[in-house]
Amino acid sequence: MRDVAFGQFIPGKSVIHKLDPRIKLILLVLYIVLTFCTFNYAALSVPLILAVVFMLLSRISIKQYMKSMKAVLVIIIITSILNLFYGNGDVVFQFGFLKITDSAINNAIFIVVRILCLIIASATLTFTTSPTDLTDALERLMKPLKVFHVKVHSIAMMMTIALRFVPTLLEETDKIMLAQKARGADMESGGILKRAKSLIPVLIPLFLSAIQRALDLAMAMECRCYHGGEGRTRMKTLTLKSRDTLSLVFFGLVITTIILFDIFIVHTKR
Amino acid sequence: MNNILRTENLSLVYGENTPFEKKAVNNLNIEIKEGEFLGIIGHTGSGKSTLVQMLNGLIKPTSGKIYLYDEDINANKKKLRNVRFKVGMVFQYPEYQLFEETVYKDIAFGPTNKGISGDELDRRIRESAKFTGLKDELLFKSPFELSGGEKRRAAISGIIAMDPDVLILDEPTAGLDPQGRDKLLNQIKKYHQVRKNTIVLVSHSMEDIARFADRILVMNKGKCEMLDTTRAVFSEGKKLETMGLRVPQITKIVQKLRENGINLSNDILTIEEAYSEIISFLNKGGKLK
User: Fold this and answer.
1) Per the CB < 8 Å rule, is B84 touching A200?
2) What Cα–Cα distance (Å) separates residue B11 from each residue in A225, A264, B15, B166, B227?
3) Out of B62, B180, B203, B265, which could bridge B176 as a Cys pair, Cβ 3.0 to 4.6 Å?
4) Are A77 and A31 part of one and the same domain?
């Protein structure tokens, strides 16, 4: 239960850890958009190289990245297989009604590389940024939405609390599962229906305690005079440093490179 | 007396081969005798809870073996469920395990899983409710309407109803008021006397352990420091103090009196014992001053 690697914060002192979370968030969005704006292999190689650079700079072991990739491996395999049989162009291989064309192969490769880049980049963000920093950054970046009466602070607070309680709830699930197993609950055998039914003794106590926790937390927050975002100041204010500006400039260069590649190199047949 | 449970070089390491490696239980060799009331004491983090969870196969040891009636419990994964029916486990704050619509149905959960039904099931539910002092009219209420103490009783009944050969209680009185505590422990003692099964009680209260346990296992940093009769263990007050434990208060008081030259017996464990000892000392013409 506790081996959920994706999205886990791993403290460290790397360059990426020290970057301003707002910059990291903006860069991630830019990076994702860029990855999908590559139309030939030369352009595609840029985000791939960047992904490797992210991994190296974050100083987080490859093992952790592998773990987070394991979760989406099935999705990658299925989409690449689907893409492999879907496409026009010169037939490379035929088996009955199944035919694989050269453009389909290109398609599949693009999809796999793009998803891999996406996962590596977002994993780098969550590995190197604590949940509180992340929601802080989100709150700051969403501030302009206040014009449209979006309750930015409440949304950020909800996210912080939700993230904070993920490990607590996992621990609680573990505990309840053990207690029910001690009463002979059988959660490992039987068909889907039987297994789903065997979760009831775990889910009911879990929901109950989650609701109780929420009520307690609301009470505790009110006792400390919490009243929402109006007029709140922060203990840690985010300030941009030279490394943040530098990374933005660097990313600007990367964007230009990709656009140049896209324009001047012949598009891969897809 | 035969051994009902026995461990052989039992170890459990959390986070093996990482910087966070922690030996929760370290090379433990103990035996629990059939029909005894064993107390387990130890400082927080000494591995008591981990040990008892291994005894009924909920956690798999990193190395070493556990024998129940001379049979390795982890040898056959399919038999593990049977082990859990034989070694009943009451967790700390067991009330969070309640989930059914009525207390009656909740107590039935364990024995039903064991395959018991009909009149036998009904008999067991009512009997186990009586053992923990749960009133009959509460049986058909929702468990969530009960008070904290009643919930605790209902949860413990749910384990007793499986009729385990060994009943493990991990701090069953935590968070109860003094009266509820005494009542619950007395009922467990009565259950022990009637059923004649084995009871393992993990507790932080030296007074409770002194009153009920036949033998005591003292855990320190994952190791067994002492495993002896209650009197023998509590006669080593200095050694216990080095482990962050202590002897019952009344034992300490009698010891102080002895140090001041008053000739009392040196293995007093309860207030009742101290009372009769002092009375007989006074009757023999002794003076407390």
Assistant:
1) no
2) 48, 65, 13, 21, 17
3) B180
4) yes
- Check whether residue A60 and residue A183 sit in a common domain: no
Tell me which DSSP letter residue A143 carries.
Answer: G
Q: State the residue range of the domain holding A136.
A: 1-148+241-270
Residues in chain A closer than 8 A to B88 (CB atoms): 182
Q: What is the pLDDT of residues A103-127, one digit of tens each?
A: 888 888 888 999 999 999 998 998 8
- Does A191 share its domain with A245? no
ipTM of the complex: 0.85
Q: What are phi and psi of B218, to 5 degrees?
A: -105, 120
| B247 close to B49: Cβ distance less than 8 angstroms | no
Does any CB of chain B come closer than 8 Å to the CB of residue A5? Answer: no
Tell me, yes or no, whether A195 lies in a domain: yes
Determine whether A251 is exposed, middle or buried from the number of CB atoms within 10 Å of its CB (0-12, 13-18, 19+). Answer: middle
Task: Say how many residues make up chain A.
Answer: 270
The residue of chain A nearest to residue B77, with distances taken between CA atoms, is A188
pLDDT at B155 over 90: yes
Question: Which residues of chain A make contact with B91, given a CB cutoff of 8 A?
Answer: 175, 178-179, 182
Q: Are A206 and A173 in contact (CB under 8 A)?
A: yes
Same domain (yes/no): A103, A195? no
Strands A98-101 and A91-95: antiparallel
Residue type, B102: T
Would the CB atoms of A175 and B162 count as touching at under 8 Å? no
